[in-house]
Write a structure and sequence with these properties.
3 helices; elongated; alpha+beta; PH-domain like
């Protein structure tokens, strides 16, 4: 095998390997975290146009350490009916949209780790907690407090 063949094998093999690894990682992330919410919160309709959007939000499924982190890899919409979640296009495979109604949230707990503020959501169903950071987390907390008369969860 000469050097030209090796270049062609690498030129074709590397993109195929990259795509295969991308598919494997997105599938594993979906299986370990996202799929736990599908039976309760799967959403098959369009996201409402009037919902407030937070792009590239940070979300963690479960507790740290050991949780599945979608750091800056989640689109979050919020309206009077609840929270809508869908990853950006690159991560969307194996991750159908979710809708979490406000009535499905049992509690929201503010957290702070070093300088990072976050809000953890506990549910009325047997699913792992979700933790949101940044503007999306603050907005979820504000909507939650407004629905509950200003009381914290």
């Amino acid at each position: 095998m000469n050097e030209t063949h090796l270049v062609w094998i690498f030129a074709v093999g590397f993109p195929l390997f990259f795509v295969a690894m991308w598919l494997l990682v997105t599938r594993v992330l979906s299986f370990v975290g996202w799929s736990k919410y599908l039976p309760a919160f799967a959403w098959d309709r369009p996201i409402p146009a009037d919902a407030r959007r937070f792009s590239w939000a940070t979300m963690v499924i479960g507790r740290f350490p050991g949780g599945v982190s979608y750091k800056n890899a989640m689109n979050v919409w919020i309206d009077q009916r609840g929270i809508y979640l869908r990853p950006p296009l690159f991560f969307r495979l194996f991750h159908p949209p979710l809708h979490i109604g406000w009535d499905q949230i049992a509690a929201i707990e503010p957290r702070k780790t070093l300088w990072i503020k976050a809000w953890s959501l506990a549910f009325r169903r047997d699913v792992p907690i979700l933790t949101f950071g940044g503007g999306a987390g603050q907005a979820i907390f504000d909507y939650w407090q407004a629905r509950h008369g200003g009381r914290p969860a």
